[in-house]
Amino acid sequence: EAAKKAAEEKAKKEKKAKKDKKKKKKKKKGPSTKVHRRTLTVENSNLFMEQPPMTKAQLKASKAKLDALDAADSARRRREAAQNDLETYILEMRSSITSEMEAEIEKVSTDEQREEAVNAANAAEEWLYDEGFGSDADTFISKKAELEGLAKPLIERALEFEARPKAVTKARNYVDDKKQLMDTWSATKPQVTEAERADVIKKLTDFETWLDEVTEKQEALAVHETPAFFSREIGPRLQSAKQLISRLNKRPKPTPPKEETEEEEKKEGEAEGDAKEEGSDAKEEAEGEAKEEGEAKEEAAADGEAKEEAAEAAAEGEEL
Q1: CATH number of 161-249
Q2: Where is this region: Disordered (predicted)?
Q3: Are the C-beta atoms of residues 237 and 163 closer than 8 Å to each other?
């Protein structure tokens, strides 16, 4: 037993020694670490950027360069457009005079006028493909205006040779028709006053006076001279009269007064008579009802007095 106890104690001691050893290992500290703190100052730097930002001066210079490129591109497009316009006009001008409208233009021009225009077109074409090829837009525009000054009058006179007489005839027919219409309106449109019709006639007459004057001037001119007027001027001259006629034509007629027939008057009289009879009957009926009510009240009052007298008599009898 002593040996057994000694063995148990030894085992306990060893177990305790192991626990103490573990506690010592846990309590063992590692190397200490010290932290040092200080404030750092940060400055922006573009040193390592691929593309540093531009300065104000660089931005201004870059914008000016872009504006210059845009202006140059716009000038190039304008120049090309003016060059194309001139080239197209040369071809159309020469074609009109020598082929497409040759017969019409010959009626209203001299040989010298046509020759001058064709020679100018040929010279402009030669200049365009030679010394003028690199010219600016304004030069091309000016050259086209010179050609228009020669060709446009020829083409306009050719077109007006037939258009002007047709327009004059149409305008005179319109004036005659509207003057007759004013006579018709005097009977059919009472809503249009005589003064308003006179105003229309005056506008038409003023137009006729102008048309007579310019037509007379035109007849005195040679066909190859500048016309006294163009057909496109006629429409605007008539516009004032047309607007006035249109406005008066839309004015509605006055509403005529209502006329009653004998039958309608008779019906109205009968209706009034019936209404009077109905009113008289109603009045008599109301008076009769009032009278009956009065008589009933008088009878009720008499009954009341009789009852009172009977009651008094009975009371006197009892006292006796």
Answers
A1: 1.20.1270
A2: 1-62, 241-320
A3: no
pLDDT digits (tens, 9 = 90+) for 8-58: 787 777 777 777 766 665 555 556 778 888 888 887 766 666 677 788 998
Q: What are phi and psi of 42, to 5 degrees?
A: -105, 130
Residue 258 tokens read as: 């209502």
Q: Is-contact 171 234, C-beta < 8 A?
A: yes
Q: Is 199 exposed, middle or buried (0-12, 13-18, 19+ CB in 10 A)?
A: middle
Q: What is the CATH topology of the domain spanning 67-159? A: Substrate Binding Domain Of Dnak; Chain:A; Domain 2 (1.20.1270)
Q: How far apart (Å, rounded) are the C-alpha atoms in residues 101 and 91? A: 13
pLDDT for 24 equals: 61
- Nearest to 209, CA basis, from 179, 175, 239: 175
Q: Where are the domains of the chain?
A: 67-159, 161-249
Measured distance CA(76)–CA(87) in Å, rounded = 17
- Angle at the Cα of 177 (from 176 to 180), degrees rounded to 5? 90
Q: Do domains 67-159 and 161-249 have the same CATH topology?
A: yes
